């Protein structure tokens, strides 16, 4: 909406909420109308398709009723250009860290604040700190020449795992061609591939799922080396690694600095598994089955740099990985959390899905826990009560009339 004038924004928003203004209150409640409208997508003049939460639509509705079209326009923040929400202690420490570490990216400065327990990651918000950095010129100078990369190699399995994505072949999914992505995690010392598989998306949630499976099989490593992902998922990955005592190392997207070993592995995959125009399989399941067989052979083949096989190198010395006790549920360490509003029909909305929360109070907000790659079941409240997806047909049969 950056290139629209204020009137255009107000008219466009009015067109979205207009069905709410003319609805028959006897036929449909406002809550249900908001839920129905939130399920729809709307096209902006720039061609981008967007959707809005029921809370946003309700806010627009009340703003229009109070002030008409002008109330639907964007208004300038009253404190724009000021950063009163940033405490003096955090402000001073950021200037000190920037002077001491001119090469650090700003996200690393924030990580240092967290380690020093100066910032609790909530107050002020991360967005406020980034706005403050922009105004105070605390971002890293892009003209600083990066330090030259040095060759390194750890000695023991589990001291460092590194991960990355490789663009794979297209396959058929429900009659449509979909691109695949190979995500691999390899051990630096042994070149042993601790987990790898093909997926239909390239995001940090896939990375977290792969890391969870690798830890389940081999234990948790000391360090995990990967690139930055999407903002929210990347922050969650940092939280997961901090929770488990894993040192997370980030590199900027598109700049695989220091991840040469995984890049070399990808070249081997290109030459040995994906060689040719015809993919090894035409379905995701078939592709992963074929790759699993190829990977088992790879880990048992002599590696030129090691003068032995990755499997033998892994087994030749003690592992630095810490096993996860069977009494600990590893999935709970990888769950994301989010605050969700409870609607009048005792449901919540999470990623365009509705869930029943019968023990939550309508109008309140509850903490919701979920696995990003599996939304069939979520949990809510301090007691981690399971919340199942709304089954309208089942609810209709059980509702007393």
TrEMBL record:
Pfam families: HTH_32, rve. Residues 144-318 form the Integrase catalytic domain. The keyword Iron-sulfur does not apply. GO terms for molecular function: DNA binding. The keyword Lipid biosynthesis does not apply. GO terms for biological process: DNA integration. InterPro entries: Homeodomain-like_sf, Integrase_cat-core, RNaseH-like_sf, RNaseH_sf. Keywords: DNA-binding, Homeobox. It comes from the Bacteria. This is Homeodomain-containing protein.
């Amino acid at each position: 909406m950056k290139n629209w004038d204020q009137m255009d924004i107000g008219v466009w928003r009015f067109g979205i909420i207009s069905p709410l203004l003319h609805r028959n209150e006897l036929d449909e409640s406002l809550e249900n109308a908001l839920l129905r409208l939130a399920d729809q997508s709307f096209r902006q003049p720039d061609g981008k398709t967007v959707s809005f939460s029921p809370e946003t639509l309700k806010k627009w509705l009340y703003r229009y009723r109070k002030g008409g079209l002008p109330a639907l326009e964007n208004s300038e923040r009253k404190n724009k250009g000021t950063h009163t929400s940033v405490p003096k202690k955090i402000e001073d420490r950021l200037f000190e860290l920037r002077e001491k570490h001119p090469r650090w990216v700003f996200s690393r400065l924030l990580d240092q604040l967290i380690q020093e327990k100066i910032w609790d990651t909530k107050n002020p918000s991360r967005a406020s700190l980034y706005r403050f950095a922009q105004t105070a010129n605390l971002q890293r100078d892009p003209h600083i020449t990066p330090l030259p990369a040095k060759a390194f190699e750890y000695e023991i399995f589990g001291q460092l795992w590194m991960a990355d994505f490789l663009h794979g072949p297209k396959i058929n999914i429900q009659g449509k061609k979909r691109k695949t992505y190979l995500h691999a995690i390899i051990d630096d010392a042994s070149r042993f591939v601790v987990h790898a598989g093909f997926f239909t998306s390239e995001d940090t949630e896939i990375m977290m799922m792969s890391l969870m499976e690798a830890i389940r099989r081999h234990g948790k490593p000391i360090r995990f080396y990967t690139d930055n992902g999407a903002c929210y998922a990347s922050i969650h990955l940092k939280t997961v690694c901090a929770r488990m005592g894993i040192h997370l190392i980030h590199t900027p997207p598109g700049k695989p600095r220091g991840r040469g070993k995984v890049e070399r592995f990808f070249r081997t995959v290109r030459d040995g598994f994906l060689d040719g125009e015809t993919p090894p399989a035409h379905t995701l399941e078939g592709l992963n089955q074929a790759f699993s067989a190829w990977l088992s052979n790879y880990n048992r083949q002599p590696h030129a740099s090691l003068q032995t096989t990755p499997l033998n190198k892994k087994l030749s010395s003690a592992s630095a990985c810490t096993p996860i006790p069977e009494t600990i549920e590893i999935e709970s360490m990888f769950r994301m959390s989010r605050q969700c509003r409870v609607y009048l029909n005792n449901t919540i909305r999470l990623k365009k899905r509705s869930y029943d929360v019968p023990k939550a109070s309508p109008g309140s907000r509850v903490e919701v826990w979920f696995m990003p790659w599996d939304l069939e079941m979520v949990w809510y409240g301090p007691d981690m009560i399971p919340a199942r997806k709304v089954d309208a047909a089942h609810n209709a049969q059980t509702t007393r009339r």
